[in-house]
Amino acid sequence: MEALRLVPDLIDRGVALFCFDFSGSGLSEGEYVTLGVNESHDLECVIEHLQDTGKISNIALWGRR
Fold first, then answer.
1. Considering the domain boundaries, does residue 47 fall inside one?
2. Which of 2, 4, 30, 35 could disulfide-link to 24, CB 3.0 to 4.6 Å?
3. Which string of DSSP letters, residue by residue, matches 10-46?
4. 8 Å CB contact between 29 and 23
5. How many domains, in total, are found in the chain?
6. Is 53 inside any structural domain?
7. Do residues 21 and 61 lie in contact, with contact meaning Cβ atoms separated by under 8 Å?
8. Would residue 64 count as lying in a domain?
9. Which residues constitute the domain of residue 39?
């Protein structure tokens, strides 16, 4: 939900935005954060999904804790 405020500026620049919560964080299911064990797999799945669309040429990552 935090990224919604970024959408207008990014769209004006032709930038797509894909937002997600790691398992156990934010609005995602899960009871706890695994300090990188499962989170790295979550990110790998997201990047693979974006690449599989064939519509994404560059991926930049931004996060916060």
1. yes
2. 30
3. HHHTT--------TTSTTS--S---TTTTHHHHHHHH
4. yes
5. 1
6. yes
7. no
8. no
9. 21-58
What the block records as the tokens of 65 is 């804790």
3-class DSSP assignment, residue 57: coil
Distances in Å between the alpha carbon of 53 and those of 6, 30, 36, 49, 50? 22, 27, 26, 7, 5
Q: What is the pTM of this model?
A: 0.64
Tokens standing for 61? 């990552």
Amino acid at 14: G
Distance (Å, whole) CA 6 – CA 22: 20
Domain presence at residue 35: yes
